[in-house]
Amino acid sequence: MPHDSSVQSYACVIVLSPEGRIQAISDNPPTGLGADAGALIGEPASRLFSEATLQRINATKTNGAPHPIPLTAGEPVDWNGWQCLPRRRPQGLLLEIEPRSADRSQVFVPELTLRDFNDAIEATTTTQQLLQTVCNRLGTLFGFGRAVVFEVDQEANGFVSTEYNDGSFPLLHGVHYRPEDFADTGHDLYATESVLNVITQPGGPVRMIGDVGGFEDVIRQCIGCRLPHPLIYAFMEELEIKTILSLALYNHGELWGFIFGHAHDTIHLDYQLRTFIHLVGSLTSQALTYRESDQAHRHWLASDHLRARMRENIARATTVVEGLQQADPSLLDVVPNTGGAAILLENQFVTLGATPTAEQVLDLLAWAGKVVDSQAIYTHAHLEAVYPPAANFTDTASGIMLVPLNTRCTDWIAWFRPEFVEEVTYGSLNPEAQPDEGSRFQLTAEVRRGYSLPWTAVDLDAARNLQSYIRDVVMEKYSQLSRVNHQLQMAYEEMQSFSYTVSHDLRAPLRGIDGFAEIFIEDYGAKIDAQGQALIHTIQQNAARMNQYIADILELSRVGRTRLTVENCSVYDLVRTTMEALNADQPAPVEVNLEENMPLIRGDAQLLGVVFHHLLSNAIKYSPSTRPPEITVGFRRSNEFGDGEFFVADKGIGIPPLHQDRVFGMFNRLVTQHDYAGHGVGLAIVRSIIIRHGGQIRIESQVGRGATFLFYTDPHELREIKTN
Amino acid sequence: MYTNQILLAEDDTTDAEFFRRALSRLDSPPELVWCKNGVEALEGLATYSETASLPRLAILDIKMPGMSGLEVLEKLKSDARTKDMPVIIMSSSDEPQDIARAYDYGANGYLVKPSRFQDLRELVGSINYFWIKTNRLRPASS
Q1: Does B101 contact chain A (CB < 8 Å)?
Q2: Pairs of CB atoms within 8 A across A/B
Q3: pLDDT at A501 > cutoff 90
Q4: Is residue B83 in some structural domain?
Q5: Confidence band (pLDDT; 50, 70, 90) for A408?
Q6: Could you give the count of Cα atoms lying within 13 Å of B22 in the half-sphere of its Cβ?
């Protein structure tokens, strides 16, 4: 913005200090003064205004709308019948002195004309009719040869949607304008006043001489003769327009667009007429808002059943993602005119319809996570303008609507709109075309690429509705999960202490059975025959079996109760130690093949030793007896980050796929007790230890081809369970 | 000189009988005084007028109705008359925290109840041997 304030030259602007002296004045003082602007600085206002006028000026209230003061014959200088519009601020007074528009009170009675406008507006049934009516009337009433509606979209592209034209101008209907053509920095000129009258004058704008002292904003944004955006002058010159009337229109309080009136002659709209036009604009904006609201509401009601069915699908499914993936209705029905959609939720990634590749979508969502506010919905109809990689997938996603589902912006629903190729007429040359001086605003036909159909308020409402529902459902499931987790934790702890208590309580009667059978043999064995002794031995054997079961249960319950000492352990050491102990009971020492370059395994060394003990003991036990066991221990990498699984593989009898889940259960054995010794709780202990370490264990096996047990520990997930 | 008695506090009849039989297999076994719970054990011990006549060893089970073995242990160790009497805790639990707690309360030994009679006999034998031999030595100040 220029440092020194300037104004349009058809009016005169004066700043008065609180003491009533001229502090600043535009460089076009009234003729017949006999002095130029500079000489007036510091002079009292009485040089320019009569006592009576000054009184009225001083009576101006702060921050109100100006009350016009006609400047008639009794003034010290000849103001030519102009009027004074005073504005008071704490720092002084600003006076705008402008000519009156030609008296047309014969044809133009403001109250009646306004009422006509109002009736006409109310009679229209569509937005298109509304805008056409307003354009026609403004054009004819004030003598503008062309009046257009200029709609501005989210990305600051402009579009002429409606036109009144008396034939004296070329048609502009359907022409697009680029964001650079009517820069949105110009939009804040309409922040306080919705009407601007721009008249080209020879000599151009005039500067303010003197110190405007705090009135810069008023000069820039409020007064009638404020300057437009510089490009407007270029536009007017190229297209031979002498006067522009611009009227800003609002929808729901947001800038929606403008009505522009163009004239070949000079048309001055004074304060009274501008106020009238402002009222027309206000009526139009309200009607616009109402009509759009109404249309959106009707559409909303019509599609309500769709959303209700979608919510039902989600509520009934086991996961939210499953519910969203249903075909009836699909996400592409909830937001129409979309070609594809993607869901990233609960660690699942799913696409529907035509979308960019998974990798492209995930990259896009990662970018979005950094730029999108978690409370908002992000739309764009020309994605490559803000996200260059989108140039690679304009066919599927020229337009996107991104809906964050959580506060961290890591869960999303995305809708994609494909490219909508159309030939578009722009009202200006392509910026890459290097226009010569004075030829920027030529009509240019271009094939517009990389744009999708625009996103409407209706689309956003539908998305928002779904977003809030999903957030509620996810929150509910999360708190349900938390509750279930908590219950599970408590049940687990109860089971731990139950196992412990029961095992110890079971041991007492066992001592009674086993111990006393022993005493009986000692004291009375000589007195009974071999058959009798065999019977006693049967009692003792079963008691011993019971004791072993109890010992196994105790060992399993101990896995959950002991405190973990977590460290990085060498698999080589663990296997060697285990094999030393196991080989002590073997007829011939068993060799285990250890692969090279195995990483360290993280966890409690003692419990991990138990894992290897059971896995290796099983591997030996279930190997065919005809040849030495072939056992391999190694690590299978799954990605370049070091993730993977350790494995213990044997070439034994194998486990049928159907039974692979069951082997981890307690006391589940797939072979008879006589063929293979042991009780079958070993694998339950192994799995319990692995789960305690935050990992998983699984089997790859086929009957007759051996079994491979694969497992990993996750140090980040290690769960500490409090011991009593 | 302590009397040739061993006090056993054990609520389970089978366990007590098991112990009694193991003890009886020793050469010149000590006399077994059996109390069915902690309160009975304390009341029983109160009837001994002099420290010198107390049983030479008390064996306490932990889990008993009313007063637990550890509570009895605590009372014994805080009473001047009985604090020097050796106490062994005998329990079915082999959990490290139970063992540590018993020693915290002042136990002189902790033994896990064996399920095999043979093992119990060996255990009783070694207890008897140790405490008889050591108790032949008078404490320096009595």
Answers
A1: no
A2: 42
A3: no
A4: yes
A5: confident
A6: 27
Whether B51 is in a domain gets the answer yes
The rounded mean pLDDT for chain A is 86
* Nearest-CB residue to A508 (from B14, B116, B117): B14
Closest CA to A141 of A267, A247, A225, A228: A267
Which amino acid is located at B91 in the chain?
A: S
Of B33, B31, B35, B106, nearest in space to B64 by CA: B35
Tens of pLDDT along B89-120? 999 888 888 899 999 999 999 999 988 888 89
Cβ of B113 and A547 within 8 Å? no
**3-class secondary-structure state, position B32:** strand
Question: What's B19's domain CATH number?
Answer: 3.40.50.2300
- Decide: A85 and A271 in contact? Cβ < 8 Å: yes
Alpha carbons A191 and A217: distance in angstroms, whole number: 11
Inter-chain touch B117–A518, beta carbons under 8 Å? yes
pLDDT at B130: 82
Domains along chain A with CATH numbers: 6-98 (3.30.450.20), 110-200+241-299 (3.30.450.40), 320-420 (3.30.450.270), 470-561 (1.10.287), 564-717 (3.30.565.10)
Integer Cα distance of A123 and A330 in angstroms: 40
Percent of the residues in chain A that have a pLDDT greater than 90, as a whole number: 39
Q: Give the pLDDT confidence of A668-688 residue by residue, as tens digits.
A: 555 544 444 455 678 888 988
Report the interhelical angle of A682-692 vs A605-621 (nearest 10°): 150
Mean pLDDT of B4-10: 91
If you average pLDDT over every residue of chain B, what do you get? 86
Q: Give the pLDDT of residue A724.
A: 30
- Which tokens hold the place of A386? 């803000």
User: Residues of A numbered 502-531 whose beta carbons fall under 8 angstroms of chain B's beta carbons: which are they?
Assistant: 504, 507-512, 514-516, 518-519, 522
Indicate the SS3 state at residue A635: strand
Q: What would the two tokens of residue A708 be?
A: 């491979």
Residues A572, A534 contacting (CB under 8 angstroms) = no
Query: DSSP string covering B75-140, please?
Result: HHHHSTTTTTS-EEEEES---HHHHHHHHHTT-SEEEEPPSSHHHHHHHHHHHHHHHHHHHTSPPS
Quick one: average pLDDT of A501-505?
79
- Sign of the CA dihedral running B39, B41, B46, B51: negative
ipTM: 0.81
Enclosing domain of residue B79: 3-135
Determine the distance in angstroms separating the CA of B38 from the nearest CA of chain A, rounded to an integer.
19
Specify the length of chain B in residues. 142
Q: How confident is the model at residue B134 (pLDDT cuts 50, 70, 90)?
A: low
Tokens standing for residue A719: 């769960």
pLDDT at A573 over 90: yes
CA of A356: how far to CAs of A291, A332, A414, in Å?
Answer: 37, 15, 11
Mean pLDDT of A660-671: 66
d(CA A594, CA A602): 18
**Domain count for chain B:** 1
Q: What is the DSSP letter of A182?
A: T
Query: In angstroms, rounded to a whole number, what is the distance separating the alpha carbons of residues A57 and A76?
Result: 15
